[in-house]
Amino acid sequence: MIFGMWDSPFFDLGPIPVDHLVFTEWVIIALIGIIAFTATRNMQLVPRGLQNAFEAIILWTYDFFTQLMDKEHVAKKWAPILTAFFLFILLSNYSGLIPGAAHVQGFQPPTSNWNVTMTLALITFCSVHVAGFSEHKGRYFKHFVSPGWAMLPLNLIEEIAHPLSLTVRLFGNIFGEEMVIAFLLFMAPFVIPSAIMGLSLLLGAIQAIVFTILSASYIAAATGEGH
Predict the structure, then answer these.
(1) 169 inside domain
(2) Whole-model pTM?
């Protein structure tokens, strides 16, 4: 991905300029919404087709988060946002694999921009503390001074490190991948990049899974009995 090549807005929505990155996010969100609507608009007792596939994804993520969090009611409450994370990040990663995407406005993978990954990480950060407070009420804040008040600075640094690591990990991997593909596409069009793009299918899924698992583990830790 070659950044900085589109300084002007992609288009204007009335008085509001819309960046090409925002447009890509809108397309991905709309795609997820359309799939969800289509899969659930005429639900059958015995699922088939798109409904069957969509239910399989929901059940798989719900069962996975239930095992990870140990508390079924916590998993049931937070599985929707974690599943949305997974689908959005997965499609964002794959949007960069569209042939010529590095040179077409509106197709920059959102996750190759640190503003997007930071926003996702901040949502996780807020969700963790909301989940912890909802589960333990005022007792939740005791973990900031556990095992003693002297640990307060280190505990605060640890909390800040979580969203920072989520931001840098996802952004760094996708940005680096896009740079490599763009360079190889320039040096050897459609030869070496084809193999790299094939590997990117696997890496894109792995990055989506890793971000989601880490987010779920942070929520699990905040809602666990240790707090």
Answers:
(1) yes
(2) 0.80
